[in-house]
Each structure stands twice: as C-alpha cells, then as structure tokens.
Amino acid sequence: MGKKMSESCERILVRGNEAVAMGAIDAGCRLFFGYPITPQNEIPEYLSKHLPPLGGEFIQAESEIASINLLLGASATGTRAMTSSSSPGISLMQEGISYMAGSELPAVIINISRSGPGLGGISASQGDYFQATRGGGHGDYRVLVLAPSTVQEMYELTCLAFDLADKYRNPVMILGDALIGQMKEPLLRKRPPALELPPKDWALTGAKGRKPNRIKSLYLQEGELTEHNWKLYQKYERMKKEEIRFESVGCEEAELVMVAFGSMARVAKTVIELAREEGMKVGLFRPITLFPYPEKPLKEISRKVKHFLTIELNTGQMVEDVRLSVERDAEVYFYGKPPGALPPPEELLEEVKKVYGTEHSA
Amino acid sequence: MDLVFKRPECLIDVPFHFCPGCHHGIVHRLVAEAIDFFKIRERTVGVASVGCSVFMYDYFDIDVLEAPHGRASAVASGVKRARKDLIVFTIQGDGDLGAIGIAEGIHTANRGENITLIFANNGIYGMTGGQMAPTTLLGQKTTTSPYGRNFSYDGYPIRMAEMIATLEGSAFVARVAVNNPSNLMKAKKAIRKAFQMQIEGMGFSMVEVLMSCPTNWGLSSLEANRRVEEEMIPYFPLGIFKERKMADYL
Fold first, then answer.
1. SS3 of A5, please?
2. What pLDDT is recorded for position B248?
3. A274: number of CA atoms within 13 Å, CB side?
4. Can the peptide bond before residue B181 be classed as cis, meaning omega within 30 degrees of 0?
5. Which domains does chain B have, with CATH numbers?
6. Which contacts of A188-194 are long-range, i.e. CB under 8 A and separated by 24 or more positions?
C-alpha cells in the first residue's frame, strides 16, 4: 500500500498527447482506432505499445472514416473505446459522430487540433471551436466538449470524458491543440474519482435471456423523429445543468476580464501578472466545458464587470458565446490571432491596455 | 406427420416490406437458417447497412446495430474486436460495399476481420429509386444511366468477390445466386459455410449473392429471375473463389 501510494504520487514529465493516452488507459479504455496525422501521433503510438499488454487492442485503420465507425461498433457493445485525430481527420469523422449522437452511443474523440482551413498547417489553432461546439456533422445534436489547458488536465479530462460519455450516452470530445499536445509538463498520474454510472443495459451483447437490443438512428414513423430529437435536446439541457466547468482567476476584483480557453488561457495568465504590475485589475475566465458553455457564471461576472476581452487563436468564434452570455450593457472586445504562432504576452498586454483605457476614459 | 419446412426461429413473424419478387427476403431467410443451424442466435449481432437491407432489425430476432452508409464492415469489425465471443454479420448492398464503402470493405477483408459479410448485388440502387450502381452491367439502363451504362463514361461493373479473394486476409469468398432452386441450395450451403468459418475463427468470410430488383429493373419477378441467369451470371460467374484451410491460417 505504502509503495503504491508513493508511486501514484510521483510526478512524471510527459507530453500532453501521452497524458491523454495514459488517461484513456486509466479510465478503462482498451480499444483504440486511429489513423496517423500530425500533431497527435504520440497518442496512437503510445497506445499501440501499451494496450496489447493490458489485453486491449490498437487498430490502425485505413482512414478516419473507418476509425470512427470501428469506434461506433465497439461502443455499441458497451466497451470503452476511443479515437484521436487532428482537424482534417476530425472533419472526416463528423458523419460517424452524428450517427453516434443519433444512436445515443458513448464515445471519446480526441481532437489535437491544427490549423486550417484545408490542409492548413500543423501549428496550434482554435479554428475548430464552431465545429466542436455546434455538433459538427449533420442534424440537430451536440457533443460534450472539454478544453484542457495543461498536461495535467489533458490526463484528468480524458478520464472524465469516458465517464461523461457513459453518463449521457453521447460522444465527448477533448479539444486540445498542437501546443498542449506537444508540450511536456509534470503529470501526477492519479485517476480522479469515477462517477457513478447507470448500467449499460442497452449494449449489444447477444440477445440471451432478454429481448433483442437495437441501436439505430433511423426513425421513419410519423412523430418518432420529433420525439427522438426532443429526447436528445433534454439530454443537452441536462448537460447544461450538471456539467458546466470553468476556471475563474481574479474575476471578482477585476475591472476587465479576459476570456480564453486552452493554450490561449495559458498566455492570458501571464498577461494578468503583467497587467497587475502596471496597476490594472485584470481577471481571466477560462471555460473548461466549451459545450455546455458556462453561460451562467459568465453572466454572473458581467453583472459587475462590464469589460470583456475575448482572446482566441482564430478570427473570432468563442467570442459569439461570450456575447450571448454576458449582460447587455457589458462590452465584449475581441483579439484574434489566426494560426501561425501564439501571441507573446506583451502583445496581449497592449490589447488589454487599449480596452482598459476605454473603460477608464469613459 | 413430419414438419419439413418452417419459419426459422430467429426470423420474427412479420411480413417483409420488400417488393414482390425481390430476393432480399430469401437472403434473410438463408442467413436466419444458418444462425438457427449453429444455434448462435443468443450471441449474434447483425449490422444493418443503408439501403433496402437497413430494416434488418424488423426481421431478425437478434441484437442489431445500424451503420452509416458504406461503413457496415468497419462497424461490424468494431463490434467483433470489442467482443470476440459474438458472431457478427452484415448484409451490404452493391452501393454500400462496391461504391461508398469499398475502402472499408477491402481493408476489413485485408485485416482478416473475423466477421461474415453478405454482399447483396442486384446491380442497382434499390432504395433510392433505381440509380446506376458500381455493379450495373454495361448497356443497362438506370435512372442515372438513361442511355445505358457506357464504359467510356461510367467505367466497368466491379467484380467484388474476385477482388476480395485476392486479399490474404479473406478466408472464404463465394458468389451465389438464388434465382432457381438449384442455385438457392448452393447459396444456403455457402452462407452456412461463411458463418462456420467465423465460428472457427478463420477470418473474413464473404458471400456475394446475385439478386433481382424487379421494381427498378422494370421486369416481372419471373423475368427478373431469368435476367439473373442470362445477363448477370455470365458477367459475375458463380463459385467459390477462396476457401482457407486451417493449415493456411496457422
């Protein structure tokens, strides 16, 4: 026991992508399906080595389309399985994700996103925000989206993603990026407490001693599909009530709140310190769940703080959710950086000064 | 009096929705007979593809999962990889396997996924109303080849069984027809064999069934049966293209 404790408390230096793979293993994932694409290759590479000794399997599929459909099949048996890819590959998976949402199948999908559109580049980007948070494929559905900002969170949110997928019978996406996937940080590999989950009595295990189970998304009888869509809607509403996650840094006493997620939030944290050195009261609101979006806590902050600066590694996507969340008399500014390089804190500080100046001259 | 013919136990007692003269009902029956024969109903999972075969769950008294169009063999492989104790099969049409899902079909066979694929080849898109399929014969008129399939425009009809048989991963590949009693008995044997291969863990098994689509061919049931014999079989020869012995596999 003592030995185990000391082992589990030891910090290890790993890449974000490896932390995701470790989280998957610790959450009980034993099947992985994937196709190579930069910058997420450490995930399949790690799992191809570490799953077989655990009795699991890694399958390198012929495409992301095959990967997501292998995942669909595995998930239907109630088995914990996962796929990972990066932006162009995630686009190919959207059909399968829509089918899984429609068929109410749990699945964990990792997007270590890169820049687009098209082949784009392999640098970090937050250009997939809309795709991730608005369903992404055809039909009226949502995917629960978690946005890690540290290597530790890459691990912990991956563990959580499996529980949430099972809790809601819905795909859950981890939206990371090239920076968080590739960077190394100390990781405390200790699985967060597991959620209490309902039995998987819907799973396809062979109709022995029970009526056959059917998993499908085709509803042709009059009224059936309407009812099915309302059922899915209720599920998303429940997510909004129960799954909101965010980090709030110094928002209480702030006069300006920056809103950023993922790797941009890391830069923003440095900006807070620089701003304080210059006597400005700046806070950070960091959504961890991108869907459901933390609308209520952000609205709460906007009752007092009236200036928000949304910072994203794109030309403006999450800013729409910020504007939808805050009180009407709050001003929402945007500073976007299309993919290429992360802006240095000094560059963001200049933006903060501009907005902060507006506030104080008013 | 001896009971010599009855509804297979794993077929639900409801009328098929298939058009009169369509061979889908016969193929469902042959699959059901194989499941009954091996007594595997309680550990079989069917994967429904998109097309006329999608309503599999209305007819088979087994667990069924619906796949996106063309992805049935990948979905079936996912089920099998997760639960190797289950017997997994899918019925895919010619559009599903020969066009949109040909990559998944080939790689499923090539990985030697231990599943059974029934390939329903009627040379036309039935459910969407009679468009040209990858297996539509040269000269055949469809709603999207109104002047007849022309190789210089549309390419040639694909012979899936022959192609799959070249892959090392495939264990059993056959092409059968159900247009007359003699062919039907051979089809029954081939489908049973395909399930047996899976039960014995031999690898990927596929039976291509030449089927009629009287509605979209614009023929009567009997004329459609004759067309299978006179036009389809000469281009898509019947037979067993691959039969792996255990020794080859090990």
1. helix
2. 57
3. 15
4. no
5. 24-249 (3.40.50.970)
6. A188/A9, A188/A10, A188/A11, A188/A152, A189/A8, A189/A10, A189/A12, A189/A22, A189/A26, A189/A155, A190/A8, A190/A9, A191/A26, A191/A27, A191/A159, A192/A156, A192/A159, A192/A160, A194/A163
Domains and CATH numbers, chain A: 2-201+216-242 (3.40.50.970), 246-361 (3.40.50.920)
Question: Can you tell me the distance from the alpha carbon of A361 to that of A358, in angstroms, rounded to the nearest whole number?
Answer: 5
Beta strands per DSSP E along chain A: 11-15, 31-34, 57-60, 81-85, 107-113, 144-146, 171-177, 184-188, 214-215, 246-249, 256-259, 282-287, 289-291, 307-312, 331-336
Closest CA to A111 of A48, A51, A178: A178
A208–B78 CB contact, under 8 Å: no
Asked if B64 reaches chain A (Cβ–Cβ under 8 Å), the answer is yes
Instruction: Give residue ranges of A with CB < 8 Å to any B CB.
Output: 31, 33, 57, 59, 61-63, 65-66, 69-77, 79, 81, 95-96, 99, 103, 204-209, 212-218
Q: Are A309 and A256 contacting, i.e. CB atoms less than 8 angstroms apart?
A: yes
Please tell me chain A's helix, strand, coil percentages from 3-state DSSP, rounded to the nearest 5: 45, 20, 35
The verdict on whether omega for the bond into residue A39 sits within 30 degrees of 0, i.e. cis, is: yes
Confidence of residue A360 (pLDDT cuts 50, 70, 90): low
A84: Cα separation from own chain's centroid: 12
Amino acid at A59: I
Report how far apart the first and last C-alpha atoms of chain A are (Å, whole number): 62
Among the partner residues B43, B65, B104, nearest to A76 by beta-carbon distance: B65
SS3 content of chain B, % helix, strand, coil (to 5): 40, 20, 40
Q: DSSP secondary-structure letter at B70?
A: T
Put the strands of the sheet holding A289-291 in their side by side order.
Answer: A57-60, A31-34, A81-85, A107-113, A171-177, A144-146, A289-291
Query: How far is B57 from B40, CA to CA, in rounded Å?
Result: 17
> What tokens does B107 get?
């790689």
- How far is the alpha carbon of A82 from chain B, nearest alpha carbon, in Å? 11
Residue A7, pLDDT > 60, answer no
The torsion angles phi and psi of A176, rounded to 5 degrees, stand at -105, -165
**Tokens read off for B47:** 């994967």
pLDDT, mean of residues B173-198:
98
Is B42 in the A-facing interface, judged by CB distances under 8 Å? Answer: yes
**Considering just the CA atoms, what is the radius of gyration of chain A in Å?**
21
Q: What is the pLDDT of residues A265-316, one digit of tens each?
A: 999 999 999 999 999 999 999 999 999 999 999 999 999 999 999 999 999 9
pTM here is 0.96
Write out chain B residues lying below 8 Å of A218, CB-based.
Answer: 54, 66
Q: Determine the distance in angstroms separating the CA of B62 from the nearest CA of chain A, rounded to an integer.
A: 5
How far apart CA A205 and CA A124 sit, in angstroms, is 41
